[in-house]
Recover the amino acids of this structure.
């Protein structure tokens, strides 16, 4: 029985993972893969297309199908704490040295539909939108996109709507406006980038590279959401990491009271 395109893709994927095909290597020609797997042209082509979608290979004209170079990932450590330096609050030590590579883009817009409920706003409500490209100030390399959404009725007429919000940035201004001490919570997810996001982050255009998305919600002690920060970064360059500590219930096995593990 001839192999299906999923079976062919799975076998090639394993060979790439095991290093039989290394970055920069060319996969066998389609006719060779047809003979190797006893499959038709369209089946083999569908298998290669699946690997292209996953970002494992790329078709290069006159060269064939090449295993992609995958950059070594940098870990963004989410320590579940907020820090402060001379500039203001920050949330992960890896990103502390990064700076805005250009002045923020500021406009008044409509709250994104997936953030309206999170912010306690009605769909279509007006918000202040602050967009920044963050990166290495020495090389000018963009690392992440950070967009802040703030309720319009709170931000209008304040320094929150200015390009330069002053020492400590928007969080110090929010606390000075009586919304502090601020509290934060965040979630991590992934999605595909828009063309504009791909261009801003310099993502490859020949394959789809998902974005890591960190949504950070800023609230006052009363629970009012005063800002949502939407940070996006390349999932090929970054991974989210954090340490795991023991809960009091997680007693070591040698104490004689621990039960069988999961």
């Amino acid at each position: 029985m001839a192999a299906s395109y999923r079976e062919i893709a799975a076998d090639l994927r394993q060979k790439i993972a095991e290093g039989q095909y290394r970055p920069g290597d060319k996969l066998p020609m389609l006719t060779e893969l047809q003979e190797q797997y006893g499959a038709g042209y369209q089946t083999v082509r569908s298998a290669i297309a699946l690997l292209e979608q996953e970002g494992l290979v790329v078709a290069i004209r006159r060269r064939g199908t090449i295993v992609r170079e995958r950059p070594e990932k940098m870990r963004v450590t989410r320590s579940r704490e907020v820090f402060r330096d001379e500039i203001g609050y920050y949330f992960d030590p890896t990103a502390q040295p990064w700076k805005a590579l250009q002045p923020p883009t500021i406009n008044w817009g409509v709250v994104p539909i997936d953030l309206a409920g999170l912010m306690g706003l009605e769909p279509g409500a007006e918000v202040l939108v602050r967009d920044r490209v963050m990166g290495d100030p020495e090389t000018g390399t963009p690392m992440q996109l950070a967009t802040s959404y703030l309720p319009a009725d709170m931000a209008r007429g304040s320094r929150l709507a200015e390009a330069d919000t002053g020492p400590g940035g928007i969080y110090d201004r929010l606390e000075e406006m009586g919304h502090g001490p601020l509290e934060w919570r965040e979630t991590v997810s992934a999605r595909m980038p828009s063309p504009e996001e791909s261009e801003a982050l310099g993502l490859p255009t020949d394959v789809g590279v998902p974005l890591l998305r960190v949504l950070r919600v800023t609230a006052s002690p009363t629970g009012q959401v005063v800002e949502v920060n939407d940070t996006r970064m390349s999932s090929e360059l970054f991974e989210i990491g954090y340490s795991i500590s023991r809960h009091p219930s997680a007693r070591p096995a040698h104490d004689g009271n621990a039960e069988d593990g999961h």
About this structure: The radius of gyration is 24 Å.
